[in-house]
Predict the 3D structure of the following.
Amino acid sequence: MSKQEQGQKKSPPDWLFFVLGIVLASAFGFWLTPTILYAEKTQPMDFSHKVHMEQVSDGCASCHTFREDGSFTGIPAVANCQECHSEEAMGDNIENPKHREAERILAEEYIAKGKPIAWDVYSGQPDCVFFSHVAHVKNAELECATCHGTHGETDNLRPYEYNRLTGYSRDIWGRSLLGLGGPPERMKMDDCAACHRENGVRDACFVCHK
C-alpha cells in the first residue's frame, strides 16, 4: 500500500467537519445571543429588601399594600417612604456605604424634590396581561416567594435586563435561553396555566387577557 493511500485512509470523513461546525456554531450562538438580545441598565438607586424586612412587622405587605377596593398598589410611592424617611438623610447611622448612598439619593433627589422613583420592574408583564395580586395573595394565600423567589431577601438590586426587541423584562422568559425552568426563575404564561391546572382553577384565555 502506498503512502498516499495510507494518508487518504487516515483522513477524517467530510461529515465530521460538518457536525463539528454545527456544534461550534451552536455553542457560539448560545453564548452570543443573550448579549445581542438583552440589554441591561441600573436602577435609579440601590435598595435593600433585607434591611427593610428586618425592620417591618408585616413582611412584604408592610410596603406592598392593597387598596380598599382590593387593587394592588405595587411598588410604594415616595410618599410611603416618607413614613420612615425624611428630606434629611440618616447619614452616619448607616454603616453600609452602599446603603448610605442610597439613603442620600432618596432624601436629596426624591423626597426633597417630590419626584417619583422610576423603578424598572423585574416582574413587569406585557400590557395585554391582567394579573390580580388580591386573587393570588389574599384568596389563594400564595406566598410572595412563589413567584418572586428570594427577591425579598436581597441586599442590593441587580441590573435590570430587558429584551431589546420587546422591551420586556428578562425575568419573564427566564435566565435559560431555551425558556426552561419555572417560577420563580421565570414568569411565562405556561407557568401560570400549569399552576391553575394543578390547583383546579380556570385557565381560559380571558382569565388573564382582558
